[in-house]
Amino acid sequence: MSQLLDLPNEILEDIIHITAKVDYNKYRFIGWQYPCYHYDELQPIALTCRRLYFLCAPYLWRDKEFILPYEDDDRKREHTPMATDVLSTCGLFHSNLRGHYVRSLSRDLTNGMHFDMNNSELMAQLVCHLRALRIDFHPKTRSEPYGLQFFAQFCPSLSELYLENCRDTYDDFRSFVKYGRSFTSLTLLCCTIQHDTLHQLIDLCKPTLRSLLFQRVLIEQSSNKATSIPTPLYERLLSCHLTRLALSDSLGYGLVQIIVESSPHLENLALILHEIDPVLVTRSILSLAMLDKLVILSLTFRRVQPLSTMYERLPCCAPARAWSHFASRLPSLQVIHLSASRVLLHTDFLSHFFEHPRSHVMLHHIAWCPKTHGNDDLSSNGERALLDEYIDDLAYANDDIEAWKKEKELGKLMPYLFTGEEARANGYRSLEITDRVCFIKGFSDWRM
């Protein structure tokens, strides 16, 4: 220990950083990648001696999570301090308040209605160096603002925002425009936002935004009703230069083109396509194959209803050769989830795809197709040729798993081929009842 303490603080700090850093799996699509450090690893180091405590303290308070207790919690037995009380006290041997060290803040307010604006304002003032904010609100409609304006006002370094169940009835989001908060990461789940505010926020964040995750995000109307995000606004939003993108609204080929052209360095992508025109579906797949930096891809074919949870599952109306082309162009792809009521594939899709072993693969429902066309460049084919090839593949497609088992070159991959019944029996309950043949490798955390 004495020899370790002979090292300069800069080296000791690097050792602490490497020892306690949370190594998030880059092959998972995670919207909130905090805390950055393992508290259980930091605490024993901090308790070793005063010098190491001084070095560890900023990391101990860097990432904080506060959960609102249930309203019927019995607090008589044990006093639960307010989050602001914790943040407004000084740490041992330090003159700075604990809130001074906080860089990411997560507030779970789902256990009850929380309208204490004074508390939110004080908290925002205490975490003035905040960079990342997550708030999970109670889903019930509120009768007053959500308090976002305080964090926009008092946290000038705020660059990452993650909100759930935030309805923009009072134009809370406009405060981020007012105070010029340009985000690098924006995650909204089950939220609404006013049209003009989203328009201005897109323009403000376009130079910096790299991560965008929208799940069930709607436009708030003055009539207290919500509508889907219009296509022109999506065109503006998707013209940002992103590396991570996930959307729950279904898109067409035109928006896929914008994504590929604007974000050539995309690494993580989750999309839903509603195209059923074989030409446009094929061109969508060929466009996605140009994203050679992709590590994660989730692609679903369905028509969704933005104002409800209803959806219609669609087939992937593209010739099998489109997917063979796709597999040969993406050497960095490690995770792929492909879902449709039917996907036409050649054998070489699976064999080519596994020349570089992938960590996680889920394909459903896949139909085997024999090769009936040449190896010419599919991207140069005209509309009539693409349509004819799709019709030919459709005519010869086989939905039975036995068609795949006859392919000798797939020998080592056979353990990953399942009937839908087998996959569901193995715990993959999310599969549709109509999924007759599936290919599953990994995704063990999806098993129920």
TrEMBL record:
Superkingdom as given in the UniProt entry: Eukaryota
InterPro entries: LRR_dom_sf (IPR032675)
Name of the protein described by the UniProt record: F-box domain-containing protein
Species the sequence originates in: Apophysomyces ossiformis
